[in-house]
Amino acid sequence: MSTSTFPSEVTVTEFDRKLILATQAGLPLVSDPWEELGRQLDMSADEVLARFQSMQEAGVIRRIAAVPDHYRLGYRYNGMTVWDVNDDRITELGAAIGELPFVSHCYRRPRHLPYWSFNLFAMVHGTTREEVEDKAARIRGVLGDASRQHTILYSSAILKKTGLRLRS
Amino acid sequence: MSATTETRHQVPTAILSPVEKALVNRLQHGLPLVPKPYAAVAGELGLSEQQVLESIKKLLAEGVLTRFGPMFHAGKLGGAFTLAAMRIPDEDFERVAEQVNSFDEVAHNYRREHDLNMWFVLATETPEAIESTIRAIEETTGHPVYNMPKEQEFHVHLHFPV
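Output (structure tokens, whole complex):
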């Protein structure tokens, strides 16, 4: 498996696609954004809102939300903790790590042996390096002997952050 | 310093008013999908709709928020995405960062303190395009790309309380 895909049981209509293209840079910041989008796309405000509700229900849209620059909020230390976890236990332990409230993302990813032996990624954030290290120590506590080794990759610069974009 | 090498640990923490803090916290959870959604949020927080709209614009203009809008699930749009990493020597880093960032398929790119020092997310409309984009990045930059697609997702609950 070289790419990650999800079952595409969800039907995204041509109109949904237009809505996505119209809002991927941002939702209109006006009193009635649905009406504004409807005006742009020649639909009623009710239809626009109904499509967003449907897309959110189907999971095509996780939510319509603010994405902060976590550095500006004081979360200066972004640590990607990576763990070499016994394959037999990773499903059970990955779920346990994902449940920790301070873990923002948690994924299983492939190893690239012999160069890269880590298969569990858990992202943690902190206002200091020590805070990130404390959180990593708590993950270590949950994983116990099932983790053979781990490290923390701190980010030192955001090189690009445009988010997901569809091409029009 | 150019934007591509800006060191984020030195970026000043934003000073937020109580209203802005409340909005940053509330709006990370998602806008209610109702008519006049900003007025609904204003009602929850005891603000006016105008205060909500003006504050979001200000937070975006100041870069406290990088975006306000729908967060799409790429996989469910029939697309694909992956995390990929590269090992770039310091003297080559800026050139390679520019080359990698020039690909529209690169949604995020972070420098990290490790031998593998460049980590980026590729988002494409088809699974095949992941492979072809990785090959194109390798050809353009002259460095190998380690593809690390997610095999299992355990949880995603990104939220930064302020």
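The beta strands of chain B are 65-72, 80-86, 106-112, 118-124, 146-147, 152-156.
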